[in-house]
Design brief:
Blueprint: H1 2-15, E1 24-33, E2 36-43, E3 48-50, E4 53-62, E5 73-81, E6 87-96, E7 102-106, E8 113-114, H2 120-129, E9 133-134, E10 153-159, E11 162-174, E12 181-190, H3 192-203, E13 216-226, E14 231-241, E15 246-251, E16 256-257, H4 263-277
Parallel strand pairs: 3-9
Antiparallel strand pairs: 1-2, 2-4, 3-4, 4-5, 5-6, 6-7, 6-8, 10-11, 11-12, 12-13, 13-14, 14-15, 14-16
């Protein structure tokens, strides 16, 4: 029974966030890149391990709104040395517009950089390495297509402080076998009561400089929920104004007990229901 459940979870994970039955599989969300918020995918067939060296491709799909530049997709070739798991570098990068036209490329490898603990970059590397398979590294080949999507917001659920939406592409369990937690991104579109409460929350934080939430409209919260105990953690908060511009980006914190009736309880219930009770996708 347990083996059957694990196989089902693995099959589901491989399909979730995968574009057009191709190799792009959802990796994580990145709220604070220099291109704006984006969804990161990994080409799982490209993750090749040769000795202590691992090379693979990732794709950033930039959100449609809130940023003026032309770059809508960025293709990265990444390298990790297993002996230095906390470091990685980019070997090359390609930049595309909304129509898939290449605008720019950089073929000069970067230097290895330290990955901060508990950072999105480190999490992305660790997740990508889970797909590594032994083989011969080919630095010349590139993924054949860039067919992967940005967020797909689903909902809505009316709440006392606003309306709640969730990004169905972000609902994943990790690790894919014997998972420890489930994660989801929620978007709270505030009413007047919610705006006042959110501003008060931020003002109570011991961060400098404190964000100024002028013309606040909604907040995107990246949650993780333990599958082994009633605890949750926030990975990041991102606040946006009425023009879809990000006006704050704050790190989350440590694992905390889930309080009855809290936002966390609502978010976990949605994540569990969406992941475990949706029909499994067909080939």
């Amino acid at each position: 029974m347990k083996r059957g459940v694990l196989l089902w979870l693995l099959a589901w994970f491989c399909f979730m966030g995968t574009a057009d039955a191709a190799n792009w599989t959802y990796l994580q969300r990145l709220e604070g890149t220099r291109f704006g918020a984006c969804t990161e995918y990994v080409d799982i067939d490209s993750v090749v391990r040769d000795g202590e060296r691992v090379v693979y491709w990732t794709l950033w799909v930039v959100d449609d709104d809130g940023h003026p530049h032309q770059y809508k997709k960025v293709l990265w070739q990444n390298e990790v040395l297993l002996s230095q798991i906390l470091q990685n570098r980019n070997l090359s990068s390609y930049y595309y517009d909304k129509d898939g036209r290449e605008l720019f490329r950089s073929l000069k490898p970067g230097s290895f950089a330290l990955l901060p603990m508990d950072s999105e970059r480190l999490q992305g590397v660790q997740r990508a390495l889970a797909f590594a398979k032994d083989g011969k590294i080919d630095l010349q080949s590139r993924p054949e297509h860039l067919l992967a999507d940005g967020p797909r917001w689903y909902g809505t659920m009316p709440c006392s402080d606003g309306d709640l939406y969730w990004d169905v592409h972000s609902v994943v369990v990790w690790p894919p076998v014997d998972p420890e937690y489930i994660e989801i991104r929620m978007r709270w579109v505030w009413n007047e009561q919610g705006i006042a409460a959110r501003i008060a929350e931020v003002e109570a934080l011991a961060v400098k400089p404190r964000p100024v939430l002028q013309d606040l409209r909604h907040t995107v919260i990246h949650y993780q929920f333990s599958l082994r105990e009633e605890k949750s953690r926030v990975v990041s908060y991102a606040d946006y104004d009425r023009r879809q511009r990000r006006i704050s980006l704050l790190d989350g914190g440590a694992w905390q007990p889930i309080a009855p009736g809290s936002r966390e309880e609502i978010a976990k219930r949605i994540a569990m229901r969406w992941f475990f009770f949706q029909p499994a996708p067909e080939r």
